[in-house]
Structures are given as C-alpha cells and as structure tokens.
Amino acid sequence: MAMTGKRRVLYRQGSGFWRMTAKWVLVFGALYLLDGGLLRSWGDAAAWPMIGILLWAPFGIGVVWYPKKDQRVELTARELRVRRKRLPMEKVNLLHVARLWLEGRSTADDQPVQEWKRFDRVVWVPLRDGRAFGAEFRDPAAFAKVFGAFAVAACGGPDIVRARAAAETYPDPRPMRHRSAADGGSWLDALDIFN
Length: 195
Known about the structure:
Low-confidence stretches: 178-195
Oligomer: single chain
Shape: elongated
Mean pLDDT: 77
C-alpha cells in the first residue's frame, strides 16, 4: 500500500518494463562474466553486452515488453484504473466481489483463489450493469486478496455481505465484448470471454 498525494493506493501493477530490462541485463551480464572469466579474454567477452544492447530494442522491448505494456493497474478506494480506463467504485459491484472473496472463488471458472498460480491471468471485475471487465495480472491472487478485502470492508464486513448477498438479486456478470482497434481497444480485450 502506498500514498500518492492524498490518494491511498491499495494495489499497483506496473507495465513490467524495468523488470524486463533488469532480467535482460542479468542474462547478458552473466554471459559476459562467464565468457570473460572462464572461456575467453575480457576483451572478447565484451561482445556479449554489445549483443545484449543491440537485441534489447527489437526483442526485449518489441517482443517481450510491448505486448504487455497495457497491464498497468492501480486500485484506490475511489477507482480502479486498468490500462487507460477508469472504473469508479460506484460502477463496480462490490457486493459480488465481496461475496466471491468470502466464498474463495472466482467469477470466470470457480477455481479457488488460493489455487491461482503466479502467471498472467485475466481477473474479472463485475460491474453494476451486469457486465464484467477483464484485466490481466501477473499475480492475480495478490490482486484478488487486496480487492476482496477492500470490497468486504466497503460493504460493512463479512456478516453484512452474507446477509445482503442472500437478500439482493443482481445479474450474473457477463464479459465485455472485444472492441475494434478504432475504438482504442487493445489485444487484451480479446481475452474478455469466459473460458
């Protein structure tokens, strides 16, 4: 949790640019040390950092990072920012989020959240109008834990959530459909379907 100005940021996921760059430096730095220390001279091994720099732009940025550049997510008490889209909490069905968190399951596949592995996965954010907005996360269980706890607290606690969920009816969330590139959609919007 971090403070940004007067906003309290509950969860933040960056684009992964610096993580990708650090891994790139580690790989080619290790090749440089291995080649210079064990195999050839340090002058000959200097080719590895040069190769790394030359390959970093087309492959590191173009192939590894660019497809995932829109994975920026920021959750505050007022809104959920996914890519360039802002979802005010008034539009999010926090009761559904809280109920799912207390039951320990997800909207899409009913797989227990604790069993989610740490890899890219779409997490569904249910909206009050019956739609669900998909956002891709590198650590979906960490986001679900923060968002679920926030939703339970915002709805008044576990007992109130269970009572309201038993009394209220609302439509089951359905995924938002793929938008065309002219509408500003990204390739991640193509993942907005249930498995």
